[in-house]
Write a structure and sequence with these properties.
Largest sheet: none
CATH superfamily: nmb1532 protein domain like
Radius of gyration: 18 Å
Distance between the termini: 38 Å
CATH topology: Four Helix Bundle (Hemerythrin (Met), subunit A)
CATH class: Mainly Alpha
Number of helices: 9
Strand content: under 5%
Structural class: mainly alpha
Number of domains: 1
CATH architecture: Up-down Bundle
Number of strands: 0
Order of helices and strands: HHHHHHHHH
Shape: globular
């Protein structure tokens, strides 16, 4: 079965929206987290930023150049996508530094700075996600063939570099899915990756998020 790239893209975007909301919400609560909780939350933020950076790099290097060749009429839209990615990249750098500082100190100002960095990241990322989903991806899907998507999928696998990041990224995407969503997700990934989600990287991820977000 061919991977439904538009579906997987929507899942990725939904996970980004979910975590921006819950991390900002966690930092808004008036409390005094332990050093272990701060470290877990900062590590989770780092994971999200790594996945976002990888996702955008893959589009800039692999997807957009191919679309430019297949559909030159989309060039102006793709120029906008790349410009938006550049703005997001700057916000990623700021947020990453704020997360490191948050993990290193109990000073309440570090929590404030991380929250502000995430709010600013949201300000550039969320409109970009909406733009991509509603205006760009539907046209991209029409422009590319099944062979194109297969080649892009193979390239994506090769470019992960880290099997841990790839597996944990799928765990992160599957976090909080209902039964129907998980069934659709399972149709898109191999049994090996389903095993990674449920047995290999899932338990570690769930322990960290339980600590980071005080999930009981």
């Amino acid at each position: 079965m061919r991977t439904d790239m538009e579906f997987m893209n929507r899942l990725f975007h939904a996970a980004l929206r979910r975590d921006l909301q819950r991390v900002i919400g966690s930092l808004t609560v008036s409390r005094h987290p332990s050093s272990a909780q701060r470290a877990a939350l900062a590590e989770h933020v780092g994971l999200v930023l790594d996945l976002l950076h990888h996702h955008h790099t893959g589009e800039d290097i692999g997807l957009w150049p191919l679309v430019r060749r297949r559909a030159p009429d989309l060039s102006s839209q793709l120029d906008m996508m790349e410009a938006e990615h550049a703005s997001v990249a700057g916000a990623i750098i700021t947020t990453r530094a704020a997360a490191r500082q948050y993990a290193a100190t109990a000073d309440p100002s570090a929590a404030h700075d991380l929250r502000q960095a995430l709010v600013e990241l949201s300000g550039v990322l969320l409109p970009h996600l909406e733009h991509e989903e509603t205006e760009v991806m539907p046209r991209v899907m029409r422009a590319l063939t099944e062979r194109d998507w297969s080649a892009l999928s193979r390239r994506e696998v090769r470019n992960w570099g880290s099997f841990v990041l790839a597996g944990t990224g799928l765990v992160w995407m599957a976090d909080g899915m209902n039964q129907t969503e998980r069934a659709m997700f399972n149709q898109q990934v191999s049994p090996t990756f389903q095993w990674l989600v449920d047995k290999r990287y899932g338990p570690v991820y769930r322990r960290r998020t339980a600590l980071a977000f005080q999930i009981t």
